[in-house]
Structures are given as C-alpha cells and as structure tokens.
Amino acid sequence: MPKTPKKTAAPVASTAQRLSAVIKTCRNLMRKDKGLNGDQDRLPILTWVMFLKFLDDQEGELETRAALSGQPYRPTLAAPYRWRDWVTGLHAPTGDDLLVFLTNERVKLPPPDADTEPPTGPGLFAYLRGLRTDTGAGRADIIAEVFRGVQLKMVSGYLLRDVLLQVNGIHFNATEEVFTLSHLYETMLREMRDAAGDSGEFYTPRPVVRLMVQMTDPRLGDTLLDPAAGTGGFLVAAYDHLHAQARTIEDRQTLQAATVRGGEAKPLPYLLCQMNLLLHGLDYPQIEYGNSLTRKKLSEMGEADRVDVILTNPPFAGEEERSTLSYFPEDRKSTETTLLFLQLIMRRLRRAHPTGGPGGRPTPGGRAVVVPNGTLFEGGIAGRIKQELLAEFDLHTVVRLPEGVFAPYTDIPANLLFFQHGRPTTTTWYYEVAPPEGRRKYAKTTPLTDADLNELRAWWTNRQPTPRAWAVDYAAAQRRQHALAEPHLTRAADLDGQVGALSAAARKLLSRPTPPDAEAAAKLAHDISTKTARAKALEKEARDARATAETLVLAAFNLDAKNPHRTQQEDLRPPHEILHGILAAEEQVAHHLRQLAEALHQTPQTQG
Questions:
Q1: List of domains in the chain
Q2: Is 136 left (phi over 0), alpha (psi -120 to 50) or beta?
C-alpha cells in the first residue's frame, strides 16, 4: 500500500500577525455597516471597544492579586457593566438589544435569576458617563471623561457583536500583545489622518515628535505637559523616553505618578489619546478634558501650575471664541490659537535648573513648540508676545521645516521653536531641513522620515554654520531697532511736554472769571479752544510717534530669518501648484489683515 503523506503542521502565527488579523477583521466587519463612513468613523469605535476590554483585563488581574493576598478589592465597574458581563456573559445581548443596551438612557438589565423580573438601570454609556470618585481624579473619573463624547454610529448590532468577539481575543494583560498592539494603533492613527485631512490637526508626524523629545531630553523626575495633546504623540514619545531611564521600582512609580500630563478639548482625540497612553504602559493617564486656554487666567497662574518640560503642536490657523480672550492680558488678546498657546506655555514653564546641557545650556526646563510660518513674521500682538519670549526666555534654536511635512492636513511650512526659561535670548541658531532628494516638498506619498533628520541631530551638539545652519544675533538686532526708535520716542516725549504746557495754559484760562465784555469773553473762549485743539493734535502726534517707535522695536522680533546660504532658485512647480500657492498666500494675507483690524479695534480712538 502506498504510504499516506504526513501532514505538515500549519505555521504558528506570530503575535504581530495574529493581532494584525484581528484588527483587519474588525475593520472589514465595520466596513459592512451602513452607518460608518471611513476610518474616521471606524477607529473611534474600535478604540472605545478596546478601551473597555483593556479595562476588564486590568481589573481581572487586580482582583486576582487581591484574592491571592487576602485583600478586598472594589472594582471600578459593577455588574452587569463589565466586559465579562455584556460581551461574554450568559445574558450578553446582540442585534438591536445590544444597541439599546449601549445607547439608551434606561434599559432592562439581565435578571439575577430566572424567577426574578429584570431590573431597569442606565444603559452602558449612561452608566460610564455617570461614574465619579470623591477625589475627582480616579480611574472612574477618567472613564467618565472618555465616554462623555463617545457616539455609536454603527447601525447593525450583529456586526458590532462580531467586532466585540474579535477584540475579546486580545489579551491586554500579556506584555507582548500590548507592545505589539501599541505599534498597530500608531499605524491606525496615521491611516486615520491620511483618510480625513481635518484629523491631521490631532496628529503630529512621529519623526517630528521623536526629534523634539530627543532634543529637549526630559529626565526622570521632570513633570511634562502637552496642553494640546491630540492623539498623544508627544506624551507617548516622552513616556517611552523616560521609561528607558527607569531602573528601579521607585523610578517606575515616579514615572507613573504624575510625570506626564496633557489637555485636550475635543472628545475624539481625547479618547484616542487615552487609549494610546494606556497601550504604551501609562496606567492612569492624566489628561484633562477641556480647553487648556480657559483652565485659569494667565495672571492667576503660579508655581503649582508650572512644569519642567512642555512639548506641543497647537492647531494651525485655529481661531478661538471671544470668551476665551478674557483669560489673557488686554494687550495680548488674539483669536489666533497659536498665539494664545504660545503665551500659555510661556507662563507654565518652570525656570530652568542650573545644570549643564548640550552647548552649556541649562536643562531641564525646556520647551519645544510647533508654529506655522506666520507666527514668526507677524507684528502687532504677535510681535509683543515674541518680545516677551526673547526677553524672558532663551530661544536657542529654530528648526525650519519645508512644505508638506504635515500633509495632507496642511502644506503650510512649519517651525520648531526650542527655548528655555531663565535668561534672555542673545543668539538664535536656525537649521533648515532639506526637502526630499529630487523633490521640492514632502507629501503624503513621500513623508518625512527619521533618517531625514539625522544630519540635524549630528549638528545639534556641534553647532557650526553650514549651508543649512546659521546664527542670528537678536541682541544686536534689538539694539539696532531701539536706536532707530529712539528719535521717535524723544519726539513723543517732547510733544508730551508741549501737550502738558498747552493743557495747563487752557486750564488756567478756564479758571479765569468770564469777562463782562462780550468781545473779551469771545477772545478768552477762542484762546481756550485753540490751546485745547492744539493739545489734542499734538497728543495724536505723540501717539503716532510712539506707534512708529513700537513698530521699529517690534521689527527686531521678526523671527522669519532666511537662510543666507541659499540662492534663489527657479520655481519648477507645475502651474496648478503655483496657483494654489498664490491662493494660500492670499488667504494668509487676508488673515493678517483681519488681525490688524482687530488690533486697531482694540486701540482707543481719539478725534483731533
């Protein structure tokens, strides 16, 4: 008889392959649902589903530890709202019953036994949103904040049930699975950004994030903040950077306690950020839900509000509501989001410690912030903010990024500002990152990579002028502009003296009794009117002289320094790209004109 061929055992799938298959299956299931439209709808659902499975796995592990040690354990979620109850339990709902259980305010809950009438209680989302602790800072409060903005757009409870069962196969208490899933999750965030341009405001390209974390170099024991956290890219990278420094149990406790903090105003990125941090190992992410700009007035912030390191990328071209401006000084009010965040993080950065860092700079106490080009060259309110920045902080480095780094969210060129508290700016180094080889700009299909920034990393600790690096002496620029402004200030002071003399003369004439003679009375009135009118005219001249002086002074704070080594090159873009660039520039000009009109509206007007 012929021998039966031996069956070859199927290769065992790796953790990465298995989890990739789970995620792919979930996404394919959700693609069948008529209520969802693209990854911007699918990823949030997958995120909160994984969040609840993650929570249940953690709770199960904590319960087991408590039982082994003979200690009581109080779970965060009560039955029947635990994953093990409504996903894998005996009475787990499906179809429309599942949708009702999740979204309705009041629902029938599973009965404790077959002979008991089913009790009623809040639906799952309503229950989660109602969780509270006495301190307001526990795990239950985090869950409530996460689910405050969650919406269920799926219309098929059967497809959702299949997604739940797929996610049930992920073991969040297995280190290898969590590590692998954290990388898969980052990939999904990037795909979500690519699928929906608007979501790009929540996502900073990871090579930029890693560079900023590496260059600010936070140390274990520092407190670190991102007040516009988005999906948590900066916080995750900073956590990983600090985690590599943790050597002992005490170090890990320090890292988990209150090292990494954030704030996010919108519900979707808040949810994505929480999940991102949990997957990377932060047990209790301290992310405030709400607008960081309206947390407290700038004038009321003290040492308790300050942190050692700030890393952030405020939304480009965002505009805030007028009510937000009440939290900022009168002469610094602007509806432009970037300028408000720049003020906030200047106020919240703790003074640098006097320990040496790269180039002899103090560290920690550093900050890195992403700003669009307009922030560098704008005057008016922006100029005053930059004047304060250079007076109170050492703006030691500006990294100029080319167009397309933030594509497809925006093509606007961006800049990375690195500065520290404790001393004023004298010299600022600029480094211009090159566009990709053979292309004019980065794009979705040719994104910025870590390798593209290696030359910058090598230059950072050995700063010398190169074709892409140059230094600007802002101390000299300020002296030069102050010298140009001085004659105008002298002129304004002289005019003030004349105004004072004329006003005093007019008051003296007013104190005289009215002459009985009509002609003399008319002359007195004419003299008073003439002197008063002349005083008002000179007062306006003095204001104009001071405004001219301020314009000259603020010109020293135009940070839009061009590369002196780069020669003008022919624009080789296709005509449609050139036209798009012209239109974008016109939109920027219109934006700045609106800002100017706003500034003029805030300036007191005097006739004369």
A1: 15-170 (1.20.1260.30), 196-468 (3.40.50.150)
A2: left
